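Anyone opening a protein record will find just a pair of labelled lines. A complete record is shown below as an example.
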Amino acid sequence: MANPLQSRLGEVSALSAEITAWLTAMATSPARDDQADSVAGQEDFRAGYRLLCGGDVELWSFSSTWASRRSGTLPALFREVFADPSRAGVFAAALAEELSGFFAHAQHLAAERLCGGMYLPVLRGYLDRLWGFSAPGDQLVHRTLEPTLGRILAEERYLLLSENAEARALHMALGQAISSLYNWAMDLDRGGNVRARDVSLHVIATDPASWYLFWWRDALFLDARYSWSAVLDDSLLVRLDHIQVAAYRAHGARALDELQRAIQDSSPHTAHSPYGSQDLYRGADGAQWRAAVEGAISKWRERTLS
């Protein structure tokens, strides 16, 4: 089933028109009866909806229950469309209004929680802690983290709809870290496999057009894109030094934007660039680093688009 909700959620009329077109096409198709049963009959649809929003690269998912004032009407209106496709506009207008209000409310909650960026260092600290567990003695740490930090993160899922890109990326990375700890614990609980945790390179923040920030073994690495004229478009990978790490801790994505611009301005493809000599892609293990980075980005994309 195509999803019409990747739209400008603040523009109710545009969203309503998009939902109407999607639903009319589905309700008037030869398989409409099967679609009515498979969609309207699903328990998760009766309970709520799944909201997808984002740009061409980033896609964030969020689930919500129906607002109380719509709880008895939206599912019923949806089913009516399959009996009378002309009712699609009624349902679409109601859903568009609901989604727009929900989205605005979620962004308000996110802005309040972030408090002008003051909460971002807390999220970074959570992430450092979660990826710091790797010894066999930590293998069941998920049991204590799930009802504490796991519950906090679940309650703060509205951060996935924040206007702050770093907050969205950090929350997604935290979810990935919790999931990794769960799988590690299950290896022991269900399989009796005592092992150290394989903590591979993974994305913790990004501006996909300019840079990716990775965490690995208590260190931060930046893949920064650079170009020269129309003949060169590439990236380099550097390990952040203590000054750069401190800048990121203090200023978040803004510090990485500035570092990427400094790399670009230094002409890193030339011998005189201070960053070119730090490029891990040009070292003896360059091929392995590129493979690790591509793998981490692929996993990040799979998770954000799932």
